[in-house]
Amino acid sequence: MTALLEVKGLVKHFVARRSLFGRALAHVKAVDGVSFTLEPGKTLALVGESGCGKSTVSRLVLRLIEPDAGTVRFDGRDLLSLDPDALRKFRREAQIIFQDPYASLNPRMTVGQILTEPLALHDLVPTAHRRERVAELLRLVGLEPRLARRYPHEFSGGQRQRIAIARALAVEPKLIICDEPVSALDVSIRSQILNLLRELQDRLGLAYIFVSHDLAVVKHIADRVAVMNLGQIVEEADAGELFAEPRHPYSRALLSAIPLPQPHARRAKIVLQGETPSALNPPAGCRFHTRCPFVIDRCRAEAPALVADEAGHATACHRVSELPPADTILPTAGGFTPELAKLVAAFSRKTEGASLAGVGIQSARPTTT
Ligand SMILES: Nc1ncnc2c1ncn2[C@@H]1O[C@H](COP(=O)(O)OP(=O)(O)OP(=O)(O)O)[C@@H](O)[C@H]1O
């Protein structure tokens, strides 16, 4: 299938400090060589700790900011060389929904006005039919058309996210970037919104980039997952494959935090050591080496390339072929495999009490029962 979105070698460094004369003294390497593709109607999740560059990738894809290097192709067109007309069309075809829908909904406008605005801006529906289209959009997201007369503050968080989704759908997009769309919602509402997103995807053929640090949520929605660390993708694979067999030590640590569906299975929680290095001054070589229990000299000196196997499972790790199997699902009775016991011991010996910012990994003692 032809890709809807092709991102190649994307780089974005922000100036973090300037001299008195305005010269850049330090850069944050927010995005540093990111490549991926997304097919129509599919969901790619971007996951990783806070500050790893997920939102910057989203803003680059939407052309809200310009990259320092790299290309973004959308529907076969190079985004960076679009003329004003083509750019206007692209602004319709790619939409974003945010974590806090309330902040993005104008409190002085009724829901009807909020949904009419994009229709008028892009001249999509004749004036006489706009009310009808607003009703249709509300029904599409599970809200009653009579609610069009109400204001955002009259709705719950979940309903407001439905309104934000309806507004994104108003312009008939092909791609929606979902930036932590359920993180601010009550747990009981989250699955309703995720189910709605899936239903809309099936019905309208939408592609999603799903930005999240919550892997339990990602598991529910993603077709493919890209794990980011300090501005780079360290692993990318089909979601089922990545959740069943994470290869990169960082992905394994992230995944060890999510609950398992099997009632008698137990997973070793892996707690990474120390502070996350800063994107202002990322470690040389592999950017994960300061926290990796499998580190060898080569990792400190040489950055590993992201290499895909025949099935399209890509990993950036010098030692990927030598690591113990990603046997993170443990039968309660069986205890750890010897390799995993070593792995967990290596992680937990020095890290009791530490936590991995942004992913909610708890300190955990290995168990052999
Ligand atoms: N406009 C900016 N100027 C300077 N630095 C920036 C700017 N935008 C982002 N950064 C820095 O770039 C890095 C990546 O930020 P980004 O917001 O993309 O990460 P993220 O993974 O989306 O984090 P979060 O999950 O907290 O939103 C961070 O170190 C951030 O401080």
From TrEMBL:
Q: PROSITE patterns in the record, alphabetically?
A: ABC_TRANSPORTER_1, ABC_TRANSPORTER_2
List the InterPro entries.
AAA+_ATPase (IPR003593), ABC_transp_ATP-bind (IPR050319), ABC_transporter-like_ATP-bd (IPR003439), ABC_transporter-like_CS (IPR017871), Oligopep_ABC_C (IPR013563), P-loop_NTPase (IPR027417)
Q: Which NCBIfam families match?
A: oligo_HPY, PRK11308.1
Summary of the function given for this chain in its UniProt record: Involved in beta-(1-->2)glucan export. Transmembrane domains (TMD) form a pore in the inner membrane and the ATP-binding domain (NBD) is responsible for energy generation.
Keywords assigned by UniProt, alphabetized: ATP-binding, Nucleotide-binding, Transport
Sequence ranges assigned to domain ABC transporter in this UniProt record: 5-255
The protein in question is named Dipeptide ABC transporter ATP-binding protein
Q: Which SUPFAM superfamilies match?
A: P-loop containing nucleoside triphosphate hydrolases (SSF52540)
Determine if ATP-binding is one of this entry's keywords: yes
UniProt record similarity statement: Belongs to the ABC transporter superfamily.
Its transmembrane ranges are none
* Cellular component GO terms, alphabetical: plasma membrane
Q: Which organism is it from?
A: Bradyrhizobium cytisi
